[in-house]
Design a protein that fits this description.
The protein is 35% helix and 18% strand. By secondary structure, it is an alpha/beta fold. It has two domains: 2-103 and 269-285, 2-Layer Sandwich (Nucleotidyltransferase, domain 5); 116-264, ATPase, nucleotide binding domain (Nucleotidyltransferase, domain 5, 2-Layer Sandwich). The protein has a five-stranded mixed β-sheet with strand order 3-2-1-4-5. A five-stranded mixed β-sheet has the order 8-7-6-9-10, sandwiched between helices. A hairpin with a 3-residue loop joins strand 1 and strand 2 (11-17). Helix 3 (103-114) crosses helix 9 and helix 6 (199-220) packs across helix 7 (237-249). The radius of gyration is 19 Å and the shape is globular. Bound molecules: adenosine-5'-triphosphate (ATP) and zinc ion. Residues 153, 168, 170-171, 174, 176-177 line the site of zinc ion.
Length: 286
């Protein structure tokens, strides 16, 4: 049995499951301050016997094992979690291998193992929620270099009718600053869910997301792109995004069938936690 943690900005999901990605027990705890949340997490795993634990975490995080801060959440705006050594804390309690990666890399792994990208050796998982992030499986492995990718903060062309300055505290009008849930809410002065029937909202959203996807396709050439997160619950976005991706690429590269190339998660809200199980499994099989 493996253990899995999806560490999110609003909640922590903990699970135990097998090497096929089946979840046997699961619990959720709100993300408050580290001491409080981790107490719940630890007591969950004390009830189970696991041979490894995988953690998919909100970030940025330190994933480079050669780095002194390996296993920490680093510069998060959630200040009580900044520089929090989550892997060390778990290691102290449980003497098992611990896999550690971003929430979106975990989700990409989960989707490629048993979800919408099953059987493919490359895919992207993009979340459009409170923030925007993407994880990538390339040649069967998670993409990692100096650190993990931060694909939500790329620069995009501004929509000609968008005066909104952008929410990103670092870059203002990067992709996340213009297209994550909070940007939609501030630009249109209503929550995304209340704007469902406003065509111009989703046209503009697709305008930004399609630019990002074009760049990811040109750089990484993934075999499938899975899009999840709260904002993507607006299903009308999928055809709009596909159409704008085709328009932007303008015939330059041969395109796969976009209906089956840009898709919602096969695992629904379980992509991240399933992927975290796979992070545990990979850590044992290394
Ligand atoms: N059905 C919906 N339609 C449109 N927007 C939505 C919907 N549900 C949630 N959102 C927006 O998505 C954002 C929350 O994202 P999500 O539900 O993915 O949670 P999260 O886990 O906090 O986000 P993140 O993945 O960045 O950690 C909020 O800005 C919210 O307004
Ligand atoms: Zn940014």
């Amino acid at each position: 049995m493996y253990g899995a943690i999806e560490a999110g900005g609003t909640k922590f999901v903990c699970a135990v499951g097998n090497d096929r990605g089946d979840i046997i027990d699961e619990a959720q705890f709100p993300t408050t301050v580290p001491d409080e949340t981790m107490k719940e997490v630890i007591s969950f795993f004390q009830k189970h016997h696991v041979k490894a634990i995988g953690i998919g975490s909100f970030g940025p995080i330190e994933v480079n094992k050669d780095h002194a801060d390996y296993g920490s959440i680093t510069s998060t705006p959630k200040l009580t979690w900044a520089n929090y050594p989550i892997v060390d804390v778990m290691k102290e309690m449980f003497d098992v291998p611990i896999g550690f990666n971003t929430d979106v890399n975990a989700a990409a792994l989960g989707e490629s193992f048993t979800g919408a990208a099953k059987g493919l050796d490359s895919c992207l998982y993009i979340t459009v929620g409170t923030g925007i992030g993407a994880g990538a499986v390339v040649n069967g492995s998670l993409l990692q270099g100096w650190s993990h990718p931060e694909m939500g903060h790329i620069l995009v062309r501004r929509h000609p009718e968008d005066p909104y300055e952008g929410t990103c505290p670092y870059h203002k009008d990067c992709l996340e600053g213009l297209a994550a849930g909070p940007a939609i809410e501030r630009r249109w002065e209503k929550k995304g869910i209340e704007l469902a029937d406003k065509q111009e909202v989703w046209e503009m959203e697709a305008f930004y997301l399609a630019q990002a996807i074009m760049q990811y396709m040109l750089i990484l050439s993934p075999k499938r792109i899975v899009m999840g997160g709260g904002v993507m619950k607006q299903k009308q976005l999928f055809p709009l995004v596909r159409k704008q991706v085709a328009t932007l690429l303008n015939g330059y590269i041969s395109l796969p069938e976009l209906e089956t190339f840009i898709v919602p998660p096969g695992l629904g809200d379980h992509a991240g936690i399933t992927g975290a199980l796979m992070l545990a499994k990979n850590e044992v099989e290394k």
